[in-house]
Amino acid sequence: MTSSTPKPSFAVVQPCPCGSGERDARCCLPILRGEPATTAEALMRSRYTAYVRHDERHLLASWHPSTRPDAVEMGAERWLGLDVVDVVAGGPDDDEGVVAFEARVDELGQVATVRERSRFTRHRGRWVYVDAEPGSAPGRHQAS
Ligand SMILES: [Zn+2]
Questions:
Q1: Is residue 108 in some structural domain?
Q2: pLDDT digits over 96-123, tens only?
Q3: Where are the beta strands (DSSP E) in 7-139?
Q4: How far, in Å, from the CA of 4 to the mean position of ligand 1?
Q5: Which of 52, 57, 80, 118 could form an SS bridge with 104, CB 3.0 to 4.6 Å?
Q6: Distance, CA 28 to ligand 1 centroid (Å)?
Q7: What pLDDT is stored for residue 144 in this prediction?
């Protein structure tokens, strides 16, 4: 009873990093693999999961061409959790939507909170990220 062997991680059901409570295979992973997101919130969650998994390809693919950067810098940060705090439109029948979120990130031991109201629109039928809503104070705030 004293020794226990850790189970291999591939045998464990993984909860989705986005905090939805779903398994990742039923939540963000299909979107990371190229399936269209049905809602702006689902796309936003998949983009958070892409940051967690350092999936730059998905981040760029889900960015509107007019605002898309050439590359996404991902360093040593560790994403600790996501809370979606507000959703405006962005449903299956909408063409635009806003998702406000708070994400906690650990950068070399410094925990900060990223807050943003993200704007989404449809591009060729798919939800894409446009930018942060003006005045939504994008950026990082030290946790108190
Ligand atoms: Zn998810």
A1: yes
A2: 999 999 999 999 899 999 999 999 999 9
A3: 78-89, 96-107, 110-123, 126-132
A4: 31
A5: 80
A6: 4
A7: 43
Residues 6+ apart with CB under 8 A from 27: 16, 18, 20, 45, 49
Write down the pTM of the prediction. 0.85
CATH of the domain at 137: 3.10.450.50
Are the CB atoms for 49 and 30 separated by under 8 Å?
Answer: no
Ligand 1 centroid to 80 CA: how many Å? 14
Using the predicted structure, report yes or no on whether residue 9 has a pLDDT greater than 60: no
Residue 5 domain flag: no
Distance 23 CA to ligand 1 centre (A): 8
Give the count of domains, the chain.
1
In a domain, 4, yes or no: no
Q: What domain range is 125 assigned to?
A: 14-142
Flag whether 1 is in a domain.
no
Choose among 26, 69, 74: nearest CA to 46.
Answer: 26
29-44 average pLDDT score: 97
Q: Which residues surround ligand 1, an ion (CB under 5 A)?
A: 16, 18, 20, 27-28, 45
Which pLDDT score, from 0 to 100, does residue 30 have? 97
